[in-house]
Amino acid sequence: MTFFTRAAAIAAMTFGITGLIGASTPGFAFELDKTVNVPSALSVPQPTPTPAVAATPAPVDTAQPATQADGKDQAPTPTLEYASLSEAVAAQETDKLDDDDLACMAGAVYFEAKGEPLAGQLAVADVIINRTKSGRFPTSICSVVKQPGQFSFVRHGRIPSIANSAAYRTAVAVARVALADAWDSPAANAMYFHARRVSPAWRMQKVASIGNHVFYR
Per the database record, which ranges form the Cell wall hydrolase SleB domain (predicted)? Predict the structure, then answer.
């Protein structure tokens, strides 16, 4: 074999081996490329944990009702301002009349019950107040007192003048006690009364007999 023939054969063999290598490993470069392009686990953004929100406790009502020793609810005990009806009457202002209702009430107590015990005078005053609340009579003190045919001392819708006597001052004080509800009525819920000397045969419920008067509702 000549030199040139041998050199050509070697060259042909070299090109053939190179081609075989390239043809036998086509995925190597692809795998390298895939490895390079896969993102690192460290570079993947991690979800940010949401901080836990503390629950706000509901307000607690610390107020407790007053209880007795046995644990039952106990209503507050009312405090009486006066120890007796006579004390309540003695504590009232009697030198002046503040309004028309007071004057009408005092006139009714004076003419209907002067000389009666204080309980009887207060009961007469409370009859007038009860009538204003009943829905069957006028709604003001003076209208009840002056209503035609109800109180015999009223003349042509007017209350006669009254001298400033001890009896009248007592009537004014009793009227104040009644209007202020400063003492419980001795004839509860009564709306009518008459003198003991008469017997009208009313078909009503008798409430009390005080002094010379009988009270009904």
Answer: 115-216
